């Protein structure tokens, strides 16, 4: 169940979870670096539910959570309209925490046939070693999802918009289908952020982020999180914090919380710039195809207008002479950095060749690969737009793509 917002989200980005230090009345959060908090034995004893009950004060051990981390978790939960959240060292740690906390040997996972490469590889190579069955499905095809559901299916994992295609999943419809079959639905919403989509309000059970990307937004801290109901987050925390050691550090939590304070204006500015750049690319004579959820030419534009407040900061486009242009980005760009990540304050670009991803990562049926190529052809440049003036970025692209 999603929880209603009390303040507007822009306000919650500054206020949720924040409590001023009582001694100094400082107006920004203090970092509590202490690993331990002393306690009176009967207050700090383990309950029948283990550490699941110890997410809130009195704090005991930073491996489970700590006052700074807790502020971040509460802020994320408020923005995602969920009861609770658990913050992890990286986005991959959050994804592993979800899979290894909720799935057992004999369970079945349905995962988007296109998603961030490392999570696809985790599902393809690692989960089967633990007796978990995995089926990659194109989640835009709800009939295919319904057919893939088995009696032992426990979880469907989606990514919307997905990396690298920017293909969308209809989260409300998929959540409806999942509920009919008593299957949990998790969505990696890293590309959207809560500014653009709040999946829990559409019926999604667990919302996962790589906080390393837009939510921190400054390219200087790794982090991840999962947000959902109190019971699910307690279940995930009790495994991932105590047994996997996945909890984020206080210092990174503080940096990411500072990033969140400007998340709303940043995502709006970045999305406005990305739209201008996507429109410019779409009119460029050498560009063969542009995928951007904010463009009317996106194959799921109607869904984008319903499910997304803005188009987001990532654009992918196809162009001939990919290798030569990749060299130009790497050697001649002054504003775009040729790098793999997304969601920083500076713009990034990278070439993702279809043949390379098919060889390294995806194992697709002929039809799945045909659908992939519909969005990506032989390869795409992925642009992550930063906070530079879009006119400067367009001028640079004009020079690099000529
Ligand atoms: C959609 C998505 N999810 C998860 C991750 C993993 O995040 P992290 O690098 O914080 O582990 C990434 C990384 O690029 C991503 O793009």
UniProtKB/TrEMBL annotation:
The keyword Lyase applies. The lineage of its organism: Bacteria, Pseudomonadati, Pseudomonadota, Gammaproteobacteria, Vibrionales. Belongs to the trans-sulfuration enzymes family. Its EC number is 4.4.1.1. It comes from Vibrio spartinae. It is an enzyme of class 4 (lyase). Its cofactor is pyridoxal 5'-phosphate. This is Cystathionine gamma-lyase. SUPFAM superfamilies: PLP-dependent transferases (SSF53383). GO terms for biological process: transsulfuration. Keywords: Lyase, Pyridoxal phosphate. GO terms for molecular function: carbon-sulfur lyase activity; pyridoxal phosphate binding. The modification N6-(pyridoxal phosphate)lysine is found at residue 213. GO terms for cellular component: cytoplasm. The gene is mccB_2. Pfam families: Cys_Met_Meta_PP (PF01053). InterPro entries: Cys/Met-Metab_PyrdxlP-dep_enz, Cys_met_metab_PP, PyrdxlP-dep_Trfase, PyrdxlP-dep_Trfase_major, PyrdxlP-dep_Trfase_small.
